[in-house]
Amino acid sequence: GRIQKAITEISAFSLHCEKHWEKMESTGTVLVKARRGRPRKIWNKQKRRMLRTIRVNPETSTKDLQHDLAADGVTVHRSTIRRTLHKEMLYGRVMQRKPFLRPHHKQRRLSTGTGNLVKVEGRMDSNQYQQTLETNGISDKAEAAPGLDLPTRQRP
Question: In the chain, how many H helices and how many E strands?
Answer without folding.
Answer: 8, 0
